[in-house]
């Protein structure tokens, strides 16, 4: 193993410019992947928070008595997926709308009557917060006597679904592209070193060295290249996450988990890239 390590370091020094470029690009790729992953995790988290606020509003007809509202609430509560119901009176709706208008609330003073209807604010279990399920529940509520209209923000939910799909797809595609690029760079670096030491490899074969023995120094070289890249990128990601978490309390993401994941990913890139390069050369030279 000491001999293999020495050979790997010798090869890196011999091809130092290409090794440096590879380290830089792999480290940059890992940092970008880490940053994109953090952005995706937080994006999905904020989308999840937004989804948790999704409610169904059932606007009631004017003139319903307390008994009517109580009976209607009891019927709706029995619908599968409904978790909680809150009654909002006409006056509460008026005051809430007034606060929403802020400086423009004086416009309401011109109205002699309260035009806003009473309503039922209906909370839905998380498992039922899909467009299809919300549509089904809303359709059932709309059938009850005393309900004038039902709303659950269908267009807004459709936009949220699209955002989730775009984030996941972009994360997947971007990650695959960077991974492939990094592996190819490591492969190219190790392959150049293998080609430069062709005579040495031929001599090793003549004296009976096995392919596994020949591979080890080159795999170590790829591993060392990616190890340095991993340390640099993991350090940058850890530092950036720490500073962001201090400045922005809403930033989500386990610092240690993400840092370790980036570090391990870098090592895998080195092992895979170097193994591909050596295996291909040994196969071609048979």
TrEMBL record:
Q: Which Pfam families match?
A: FtsX, FtsX_ECD
Q: Where are the transmembrane segments?
A: 172-192, 213-238, 258-278
Q: Where is each FtsX extracellular domain found?
A: 55-150
A Gene Ontology CC term for this entry? plasma membrane
What is the protein's membrane topology class? Multi-pass membrane protein
Domain ABC3 transporter permease C-terminal intervals? 172-283
Main location per the UniProt record: membrane
- Would the keyword Membrane be found if you checked this record's keyword annotation? yes
| Intracellular or extracellular location(s) | Cell membrane
Gene Ontology biological process: cell division
Name the domain of life this protein comes from. Bacteria
InterPro entries attached to this UniProt entry: ABC3_permease_C (IPR003838), FtsX (IPR004513), FtsX_ECD (IPR040690)
**Stored Gene3D superfamilies:** 3.30.70.3040
> Which UniProt keywords are present, listed alphabetically?
Cell cycle, Cell division, Cell membrane, Membrane, Transmembrane, Transmembrane helix
Q: Which PANTHER family match?
A: CELL DIVISION PROTEIN FTSX (PTHR47755)
Similarity remark? Belongs to the ABC-4 integral membrane protein family. FtsX subfamily.
Specify the protein name. Answer: Cell division protein FtsX
Q: Which organism is it from?
A: candidate division TA06 bacterium
